[in-house]
Design goal:
alpha/beta
Amino acid sequence: MKPKVAFICVHNSCRSQMAEALGKLYEGEVFESYSAGTQLRPTINQDAVRIINELYNINMNETQKSKLLGDIPEVDIVIKMGCNVVCPILPGKHIEDWGLEDPTGKSDEEFIKTAKIIEEKIKNLAKRIKNEEIKL
């Protein structure tokens, strides 16, 4: 059975949504991707939606929505995106913090940089799962 991975941040609107989309795109055969936060936003960050659509041809407006921690199933791996405030707490067998800066309100270059870092980290996470470096 594939492990379930939750990408979490406070608002579940930008970085965690990007990670959910890229997790599904690149590593759907290795793990199931979910994202959630402690506060809902009415929409996903539209700059993130636009950049992910331009770079990866995924329309997050159609495939994803803002979710609370209680809206997703129990997960095996919890990835904190990097919260400057207190990060949401979610139980998991493996927890790590990627410490990513929030690009909200910044330039497209910052969004692109964030997306590329997330892509790289997702591929690395999948490799560690496959190599059983992460104990589940």
